[in-house]
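[Automated response] Your request has been received and processed.

Submitted sequence:
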Amino acid sequence: MAVKKTAKKTAKKAAVKKTAKRAVKKTAKRAVKKTAKKAAVKKTAKRAVKKTAKRAVKKTAKRSSKKVAKRSASRIVIPDVPYSSGRSSISSTPLPRSTASATPPKSSSTKAASNNAQRSSSRVVIAVIAAVVLLAIIVVARNNNSSTSGSTTAPANSAEATSGAPAETSAAPAESSSSDNMAPAGSGPEGIVAHSTSTGATILWKAPATATGLTSYNVESSTNGAAYAMLATVPATQLSLNVTKGDSAGWTSFKVSAVYGGGATAVGTTVLGKNAFGLPGQYK
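Generated structure:
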């Protein structure tokens, strides 16, 4: 039984090897055929370009030669035939025949025509070279497109978070209270920012630029867009407040106001110039 199993295994391996060899041969033949077709296309393109270039050069040469011949023939001068002035009888002396030289004299017009012909031929050659280059570029581009078709790259989006920067809410709740409408004696706190901690966050701010009559600071919070409620009131000498995170769900907005004598308040501004900022979660 063991001999039969080993024989079957060896037979299977041999069959797999044969199929693999056949597949390799087929792929190699296909690759050879593709390269042969590409080479044939390139050769035919080059031959067509050469033929068109030769035809264009011949046509321009023929046209330039015809123009030169017409101009030279039109400018050949034939001398007048002499005649006797006294009587109508013709003198016995034979009249000179008007002959024109087979080769017209060279003039500035012929030189100009030859220069024009040379310029036109040089332009044709330049155009042919440019056409050859364009055809080669097109062939290479097609080959590259066929080999790289189907492969796409998607840019990865990255987001960076910096510690200590305040999180701004996209839509802060309306800030309206009776104390905010009163005319303050000074300005509000500045540079309000929040730093994350192990238990929650620390809210920091700077003293107002105009702090005459400053008595304390009010820190208010709003959870999930609700109305602002008093979170804490700290003395004027305290410029920070620790808040504890109770739940990770939702969003909490904060604002800090300066309280002056008589109950007047002035809302502070964050480092981004806003009156409020937000943090993910619920704090107390």
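Summary generated for your ticket: The longest helix spans residues 2-74. The domain at 190-283 is CATH 2.60.40.10 (Immunoglobulin-like).
If you did not submit this request, please reply to this message.
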